[in-house]
Design goal:
Oligomer: single chain
Radius of gyration: 16 Å
Number of helices: 2
Structural class: mainly beta
Helix content: 10-25%
Number of domains: 1
Shape: globular
Distance between the termini: 6 Å
Strand order of the largest sheet: 7-6-10-9-8-1-2-5-11-12
Low-confidence stretches: none
Strand content: 35-45%
């Protein structure tokens, strides 16, 4: 686990950058910040951010007192409504989820972005990215295991990633 000052230094480059996309692979959520860059990867063109945040712990995006989308929304089918039931055959790794739908709406299919105004760092790897439009992205490790919780890095750069795990240094 890193000290608060380490996390403050690592997240400082996010200031003034736009959060413009969130996608997931399995249960890892990836957030792209800053200048959009195009590159060829394995023969196909893709767009990446100047900075990437990969999160494998609990997270949520809030607007004032309301959760807009959170990591546990992955557990519900795309058409889930409050009080509904989750079908036995639903598989979040295979089927579209409520998380996918809410993230797509938040970024308006890639046309909306939110500028980082500040980063507030808390205890035990927790931090909050305060964004424009009254939004906040909160990341909070929620288990005591030594696994990776989140990492911040420059995609496709041969530089070390800043990785936060549950390991005690």
């Amino acid at each position: 686990m890193h000290e608060r000052s380490d996390i403050e230094r690592a997240t400082a480059p996010l200031l003034g950058k736009a959060l413009w996309r969130s996608v997931r692979t399995v249960n890892m959520t990836m957030f792209d910040f800053g200048v959009r860059r195009k590159l060829i990867d394995r023969g196909s063109e893709k767009e990446i951010g100047e900075l990437a945040l990969h999160v494998q712990c609990a997270w949520r995006i809030t607007r004032q007192d309301r959760v807009v989308v959170g990591s546990r929304d992955i557990n519900y089918p795309v058409d889930y409504y409050e009080g509904g039931t989750v079908p036995d055959e639903f598989d979040w790794d295979r089927d579209p989820t409520r998380l996918d739908k809410l993230v797509l709406a938040l970024f308006d299919q890639g046309t909306k972005e939110y500028v980082v105004q500040r980063v507030d760092v808390g205890d035990a790897g927790r931090f909050c990215v305060v964004l424009s439009s009254d939004l906040s992205l909160e990341v909070f490790p929620d288990d005591s295991l030594p696994d990776e919780h989140w990492r911040l890095f420059i995609p496709y750069a041969h530089q070390p990633h800043f990785v936060v795990t549950g390991r005690i240094s």
